[in-house]
Amino acid sequence: MSDQSVMESFTLTLDGAEVSAWPGETLWQVAKRAGETIPHLCFKDAPGYRSDGNCRACMVEIEGERVLAASCIREATPGMVVKSAGSERAREAREEVLALLLADQPEREASPDRSSHLWAMADRLAVDATAVGERLPARAERASPTVHHVAERADSLPHAGGHDATHSAMNVNLDACITCGLCVRACREVQGNDVIGLAHRGAAAKVVFDFDDPMGESTCVACGECVQACPTGALMPATLIDDAGRGDSAVADRTVDSVCPYCGVGCQLTYHVKDDAPHAAGSAPSNAEAGRILFVTGRNGPSNQGRLCVKGRFGFDYPNHPARLTRPLIRLEGVPKGVDPDFDPAEPLTHFREASWEEALDLAAEGLTSLKASNGPEALAGFGSAKCSNEEAWLFQKLVRTGFGSNHVDHCTRLCHASSVAALMECLGSGAVTASFMQALEADVVVLTGCNPAVNHPVAATYFKQAARNGTRLIILDPRGQALDAYAWRSVRFTPGGDVALLNAMLNVIVAEGLYDQAYIDTHTEGFAALAASVVDMTPEAMSPLCGVSPGTIREIARAYATADKAMIFWGMGISQHTHGTDNARCLISLALACGQTGRPGTGLHPLRGQNNVQGASDAGLIPMVLPDYQPVGDAQLRAAFEELWNTELDPEPGLTVVEIMDAIVAGTIKGMYILGENPAMSDPDLNHARQALASLEHLVVQDLFVTETAQFADVILPATAWAEKDGTVTNTNRQVQMGRAAVAPPGEAKPDWWIIQEMARRFGLGWDYAHPREVFAEMKQGMSSLDHISWERLETEDSVIYPCLAPGAPGEDVVFSDAFPRAGGKAKFSPTRPLPPDEPVDADYPTVLTTGRLLEHWHTGAMTRRSRVLDDLEPEAAASLAPAELGRLGVAPGEPITIATRRGRITLTARSDPRMPEGMVFVPFAFVEAAANLLTNPALDPYGKIPEFKYAACRLSPAAP
Questions:
Q1: Which residues, at least 6 apart from 72, have a Cβ–Cβ distance to it below 8 Å?
Q2: What is the mean pLDDT of the segment spanning 901-908?
Q3: Distance CA 229, CA 237 (A)
Q4: Model pLDDT for residues 252-289, shown as the tens digit of each residue
Q5: Is the torsion defined by CA of 810, 812, 818, 824 positive or negative?
Q6: How far is CA 614 from CA 304, 408, 730, 790, 858, in A?
Q7: DSSP assignment, residue 669?
């Protein structure tokens, strides 16, 4: 509570005791703080859920009032005298409400959730369901109401009778529904998806999906918020329902709190675990004991407030896939390296043999050390992983730098936000976001460009929707349409590759019309005069042909951003994955600096991070040109501190990046690699080239969960642990350092990544002896000032702490750079840009723009999500998305195959009609090996961020040959 709210507190009487309350607080909330949880059904005590007061299970008696009041919606007032636990009248009303509801419920043992919140409330009130059944007739025994306007569902429909098992993730049983409306509020108000509604009135009222469609055929995005909210089990995870429709949400033996392993939002969640064997009386299972995750619920973390998306809620079973690696593997002699279409990852012994850990580690390390001995440190390189913990990222880059002897270490940031980091480091002195995405709720204007949050950051998207509902003006700038267009004040479609032209035209308007913040510029920036001079000729009229946006629209959105009191800019890989990606980010930074839109609540610059720990892995030093905390390897003073910490002399030369390493392999410079949890045989551009490079390596060690496409090139494969099988910290897109905890034991002989890296280091002669990730974290704190005042013990207690944290116990700074920037002199720098064409413009031979990205249901190269039953059921095959008119031009119907060809390769996949796609463009996801999008993409690099141009390649479309 703030000091102001404490000053405004008042008192009332609850069951004869004087209690305090605050303005706007409900009687239910007052009672809870006083130690009483009043029975409730339609109310959910969680962020984002408003009170509705329709179930009447929480009634209280208020002195001087004739009727009882619903405590969940009745606000407290000074001097009020309330009876709750001490009111016989309220008790009888609550009991009768529960009795009436139970009369219509399936019998408890036959219900979809025998441990539902409804049954818990009945138990609390000691309502005997058997006695209720003797006193009140069940629904089936009563005459059906006459409702002439409602037609019964035909028996042939898959959701006839209110039973619906058409969705692979969730079951619907309306026999248990009490029409409380919680699922409607969960879907519409919390997640903002507007799929669930209440149809009809009175006795005919029922929950429906879209226009009373089966759930599996509706527009449901499977976030599962409705399942988490449902108090009766009418909506349940399919994994908890047997063939007879019975279930039990309390079947788990224990729960473990952790963090989602997917995108950079960093949602906190709880694993519900069933142990494989009973425990001895009085003994407590360790988190990592053998068991299986039954289901997942969202937890009230700072970035998700209990919300999850389809991946976080239902994509938890990939560690149990039959293809999971459980023993080290060594390549069979004479088996060629390559992606073999006939190879079955679940049966790897056709290409590899099993080995002991000792043999595999010895061979893995010996192959690398011998190459170093004969060719020098420059012959080795390593790819780390943004899906591993901060501690594992630290150890991996430390091994490369102190064991391999070079800075040839990189990870997926090179393929997602390297150009954003390059621009932020140049202009602001820091590569991290300046404010969390939660600050969008405080903004007057939010610009979303080159990102599709509803697909790639779904929980963050819920806050953008909420902001828009609260009056924030969303401005979406993108060549493609998206779901958030429905919430946008302006959705501006520009020509692919026309970002710099559009953004410079906006800067021209701001400069020409004097809309910039001169006081902020003078105090906080340098180089504005050069920027202003550079955009003089880039008027909306001059730039409109290049970006495809009318001059009037450019002026409108520029004025809206510049004149807003508080504005934020969010961007994704549609900005960064271009040869001009750094220029794109420079333009966005210039917009914010020119208008003074940083350093205050509701303002800032935020590149939405891709993978769950890409921020933390970058912070920890998995970047070839910088040490941890982005300290340049060429700075002798900074490097000396790490040399002292690690007791090793370090290479002063920046290392090679992901694509440069592949080029160096083909050139014969790099001969050995250690790849941790990355899949460049799927994720790199121009895969033919990347796969040629991997096949050329004299020695390749791959550490992963599965025999991925990259692992098919390996000499030694080391079986690692999934996220739910280990402890460690991760850092999300908001700079929140969060604690992940092991929930189950790894299968077979799989080992934690940090343990494997340490064993490899020992074979390089490094005397490492870490017994637990907490010891690694302690070392990280010695080299990373960003972790000041954030200890392992604090994270174990608080789960999440945002950096920078300025004092012990301080909450951390959500909004940074209010006073100064971490550059020499403390001022941010404007960096002028000029529009440049894409590296490979469309032409008569290749007239269509190819762009790539992710799907809601699938992640990165699909190694995890395609091995998750629900996720793969929802999106089982590759599809190319095109505008309906584009399909018409090709003479291809949706569902028919098309072939996409570029100068590097061709793929064939199913065509999908998408009205949000512009004509002249095709979108292909890159998670499907059978139609690998990166066989087509352009490896041309941004000269600053060294990121490939994934978002633009010239291609040719044609109907697939029969």
A1: 26, 28, 38, 40, 42, 43, 51, 52, 53, 58
A2: 96
A3: 12
A4: 999 999 999 999 999 999 999 999 754 443 344 444 45
A5: positive
A6: 18, 18, 9, 19, 17
A7: S
pLDDT for 286 equals 45
Phi, psi of 378 (to 5 degrees): -70, -10
Yes or no: domain 417-607 corresponds to CATH 3.40.228.10: yes
Give the CA dihedral 386, 388, 389, 395, nearest 10 degrees: -90
**Whole-number Å distance between alpha carbons of 151 and 531:** 66
CA distances from 70 to 24, 178, 397 (A): 15, 17, 58
Let me know if 373 is exposed, middle or buried by CB neighbors in 10 A (0-12, 13-18, 19+).
exposed
Please report which residue ranges of 564-650 form alpha helices under DSSP H: 573-576, 581-594, 614-619, 636-646
What is the maximal distance between C-alpha atoms in the chain? 92
Residue 290: is its pLDDT beyond 80?
no
Q: 522 Cβ partners below 8 Å, 6+ apart? A: none
Q: Report in angstroms the alpha-carbon separations of 348 from 189, 340, 568, 711.
A: 48, 11, 49, 10
| CATH 3.50.30.10 corresponds to the domain 848-959 | no
Return mean pLDDT, the chain.
Answer: 94
Give φ, ψ of 168 to 5 degrees: -70, -20
Instruction: Count the helix, strand and coil residues of the chain and give each as a percent rounded to the nearest 5.
Output: 35, 20, 45
d(CA 867, CA 488): 35
In the numeric block, the tokens 């031009």 are attached to: 889
**Close Cβ partners of 824 (under 8 Å, ≥ 6 residues apart):** none
Q: Which helix (H) or strand (E) holds 236?
A: strand 235-237
> Is the pLDDT reported for residue 351 higher than 90?
yes
What does the pLDDT look like over 193-208, one tens digit per residue?
999 999 988 878 899 9
pLDDT value, residue 279 = 41
Q: Give residue limits of the domains in the chain.
A: 10-101, 104-141+157-247, 329-415+613-736+749-764, 417-607, 848-959
- Tokens (6 digits) for 883: 């505008």
Q: CATH topology for 329-415+613-736+749-764?
A: Rossmann fold (3.40.50)
pLDDT, residue 945, reads: 87
Q: What does R_g of the chain's alpha carbons equal in angstroms?
A: 29
- Number of neighbours of residue 532 by Cβ within 10 angstroms: 19
Burial class of residue 646, CB neighbours in 10 A (0-12, 13-18, 19+)? middle
Terminal Cα distance for the chain, rounded: 68
CATH architecture type of domain 104-141+157-247: 2-Layer Sandwich (3.30)
Q: Does residue 804 have a cis bond before it (omega within 30 degrees)?
A: yes
Residue-wise over 112-148: b if at least 16 C-beta within 10 A, else e?
A: bbbbbbbbebbeebebebeebbeeeeeeeeeeeeeee
Tokens 């697939």 belong to residue: 960
Backbone phi, then psi, for 29, in 5-degree steps?
-70, -40
Residues in CB range of 518: below 8 A, 6 or more apart: none
> DSSP strand E in 813-878: where?
828-829, 848-853
Range of lowest pLDDT (21-35, 129-143, 295-309, 813-827): 129-143
Cα three-residue angle 851-853-854, rounded to 5 degrees: 155
Of 910, 902, 924, nearest to 852 (Cα)? 924
DSSP 3-36: HHHHHT-EEEEETTEEEEE-TT-BHHHHHHHTT-
Instruction: Decide: 419 and 831 in contact? Cβ < 8 Å.
Output: no
pLDDT digits (tens, 9 = 90+) for 669-693: 999 999 999 999 999 899 999 999 9
Choose the weakest-confidence range: 275-289, 330-344, 523-537. 275-289
Residues 388-410, mean pLDDT to the nearest whole number: 97
Residues 6+ apart with CB under 8 A from 823: 428, 429, 829
Tell which CATH classification among 3.10.20.740, 3.90.25.10, 3.30.479.10, 3.40.190.10 matches the domain 10-101: 3.10.20.740
